[in-house]
Amino acid sequence: MIEKALAGNNRYWTWMVFLLSIMGIGAICYTQQFAYGLGYTGMSRDVSWGLYISQFTFLVGVAAGGLMVVLPYYLHNFKAFGRVTILGEFMAIAAVAMCLLFILADLGQPMRALNVILHPTPNSMLFWDMIVLNGYLFLNVLVGWVVLHSEFKGVHYPAWVKPFIYLSIPWAISIHTVTAFLYCGLPGRHFWLTAILAPRFLASAFASGPSLLLLIALIIKRVSKFDVGNEAIQKLITIIGYAAIINFFFIGLEFFVAYYSNIPGHKHTLDYLFWGIDGFDNLVPFMRLSVILQIVSVAILLIPATRNNEKTVMLGCGLLFLGLWIDKGLGLVLGGFVPNPLEYITEYYPSLGEIAITLGVWATGFFILTILYKIAVSVKLESES
Amino acid sequence: MNVKRRDFLKIAGVSAIAGIGIPSALNMLLKGEAKATAEAEHQAAPAAHGGGHEAASTAVQLGMVINVKKFGEIKGLAEKCIEACHTTHNVPEFNNPKDAVKWVWIEDFEHLFTQQNRFAEHNALPFLTLCNHCANPPCVRACPTQATFKAPNGNVIMDYHRCIGCRFCMAACPYGARSFNWRDPREKDAGGNLKFIKKLNLDYPTRMRGVVEKCNFCAERVDKNLPPACVEACGDTKALIFGNLNDSNSEIAQVLKTTFTSQRKQELGTKPSLFYII
Amino acid sequence: MYDGGKIITGLIIFIVFMTFPIWYNHGNAGNIPKPEKPQGVTQCVKDTAYMRSSHMVLINEWRDEVIRTGNRTKVTVQGKEYDKSLMLGCMKCHINKKKFCDECHLYTSVNPYCWDCHFLPKETI
Fold this sequence. Notes:
Number of domains of chain B: 2
Shape of chain B: globular
Number of domains of chain A: 1
Number of strands of chain B: 9
Strand content of chain B: 5-15%
CATH architecture of the largest domain in chain B: 2-Layer Sandwich
CATH topology of chain A: Formate dehydrogenase/DMSO reductase fold
Order of helices and strands of chain A: HHHHHHHHHHHHHH
Distance between the termini of chain A: 17 Å
Strand content of chain A: under 5%
Structural class of chain A: mainly alpha
Radius of gyration of chain B: 23 Å
Number of strands of chain A: 0
CATH architecture of chain A: Up-down Bundle
CATH class of the largest domain in chain B: Alpha Beta
Largest interface: A-B, 48 and 52 residues
Distance between the termini of chain B: 84 Å
Strand order of the largest sheet of chain B: 8-1-9
Number of helices of chain A: 14
Radius of gyration of chain A: 21 Å
Oligomer: heterotrimer
CATH superfamily of chain A: Formate dehydrogenase/DMSO reductase domain
Largest sheet of chain A: none
């Protein structure tokens, strides 16, 4: 089946070479970081997690978002998702791979990463995150591959894979819940210390994951004969729209609690993110843009005229994905460190090398994704013709 | 017996996974259990720690009283403490706040006690601050490798050999007491001299890049019945009083019984072991 | 077997490559390391055979005892006391890292990171 990834037109190979070159630049920058230490990045004593961990957090959501196609298809036998489900599972694989790479890139002593297994520590949420992420990767590789391979052979997938499919559903919830627990269990970081963080993570995941999925599905439709079907597209739009609204509602709740209670600790980070504190405001334009993007994209995805036009749907998905990326892939993690526990404000600017490494990991993810989608699309088209 | 190759491989595979997985899983569970009980012993909080909601513990919990008034009276004493600590432990001095490594340092009142009222006179005082060696430390809870842990004497210390540099402990610490080695602290200049460590103590190691470090309450000295370096630097001034909080006969317990003291962010339930006389 | 010829040729090439260092050196193991023992000292904390094979295990055990349990009781062997410490124990007798540690570590291509943090005796820094 893997040979399907080795046959493609010029556009396919150009895209792959493009991704490989970005991966190469990222790898070169990583060797520099490895040699110098994490001071290579813009992180500091006060903002001790930066782009790497924020991308990781966002991508766990993208991975968990695959659930929104797996669940209706396998649990409710929603046949229209027959073609899009495999795309969801494969997207989860690429996203989790990126997550693991981002964690590795963020470690001060990457050679000792296996200490997490050598000295297992159940009271650390990072230990559980390691388990659920690797477990989710395993489940998606197994289920995605076995189901696709059965289709390749022209048979129904074997019965033994069913339990793994059912297991992957709660498992998807668990990866993002545990990732939220990394943050919301820390005393003294008021912005993260909120019981609504896990549900908020899930809501944004169920919007960002499927919106990327839909965007890619529509691109695939343009570059190949593979069409996921109008019913699937409309269903996905509904899911994305409502998940985005729920996420937006949750953000609103945070605002209410902070500003109505008027407790300084609860307000500080929101102040910093949306208005700036004492002239420190490097995230303000991003956060405001995020709000606008979310409102505009949800409108696009709900208004009949635009939701029935593929071009505007693609635009809506792209804008929403960007908006949610800013919200969670920038503001949530970086904002949580401002102000620091001593109420000093240190702003974070990623270094160029750090950005290159980040792009390199994203390129790696898209590289994996392209290979997997190439295989999936080829097999699907072949088996259906 | 007629076993197909396919079936044989299946059985072999499953038993191999079971053989590898089950013992280690069991092992882990047992270890986790042993650890939980060990922790319960240490975590029992002393009455001094938080209004006496819990029964006083007999376990050792070292702590420190910082008499800020004394530090205000004796000029330069706080700096002397920092100097003593940083030379004892080869704490590097980087010339920018981004890479900063701090074990003990001077803060002002409003940044230490973020939620409290202050008087103008507070601002003139040098507030020495360091790791709180909490009885219930969030950093220890967060560490995925037990590289930071609670020692039997209550100190929260680091095993630098084990730290993977994930910095989860830095996010978890509500006191900003932890520093990361963003770069090699032993970097040398062209002349072969250390750039960031001015006075070297050859009896104590440095750290390497990529690990988190912080005040260790002088574990290496306390285990040999010596006072911490900063306490020693204070001489007879009693500006710093160090001892076992849970021993009612100790000097520190006596001081805490008779003097009003403040702890930082007590409401978080971390049970910090630093007490300030302001 | 499909493509038997190709597979077997591939395997042979692989084995030739993997065993390259052995046959290239004609089975000669090179200069056997001779770590220089400290002068005027006749014994270590354990016998030579144990120290040769497992000194790293002992050092790890010492480290865990010292750091994790605060047990810094000295090790007494035949009336002589030793600190459970690399810098303050081992290197007090084995003062020459180059002629002792490095001799074998270089030969076996082992790179322990001890000296990233710890100091050599009288190291000129």
